[in-house]
Amino acid sequence: MNRKVVVVGDSVIRGVDSYVCTRDRGSRMVSCLPGAQVGDLLNRVDRLLAPPGVDPVVVVHVGTNDIGKGRKAVLQDKFIEVTDKLRSRTSMVVFSGILPVPCASQAKLAEIRGLNAWLKWWFRKEEFSVMGHWKTFWNRWDLFKPDGLHLKQLSHVPNLLTKTPE
């Protein structure tokens, strides 16, 4: 039997189920939470990873909707809470770094880079895997829809999900 895989995140992951679930729909699930912020995952983890006792691989892509909405320390604390919650439910978690935003100001891009650097440090410290995508998507604005957040074509999603963990 294959190990269950759960991909959860904000609207950036919309449509990845056609890629993720192709091989084995029975053991793979994608939960797209449009507009989700990091703190929103706390209330969803138990429902998404039910039943207790199952040890799924969990891939998390969230954080874009948190940028520019508060203090860095508050956001870091939310990520810490999410990692603690996930650790209590599974042994294998992979976090996906926040993508660059094409239309963002230099200040916002700097905030994203700074958060990604901290996330990379924190997740490694906590022995979680991290996938970084900055180099894959930086200056590749052609990959994004005009809204500057979502990917244009699902054919690029494999790059997002299968990038070698950093």
UniProtKB/TrEMBL annotation:
<dbReference type="Pfam" id="PF13472">
    <property type="entry name" value="Lipase_GDSL_2"/>
</dbReference>
<dbReference type="InterPro" id="IPR013830">
    <property type="entry name" value="SGNH_hydro"/>
</dbReference>
<protein>
    <recommendedName>
        <fullName>SGNH hydrolase-type esterase domain-containing protein</fullName>
    </recommendedName>
</protein>
<feature type="domain" description="SGNH hydrolase-type esterase">
    <location>
        <begin position="33"/>
        <end position="152"/>
    </location>
</feature>
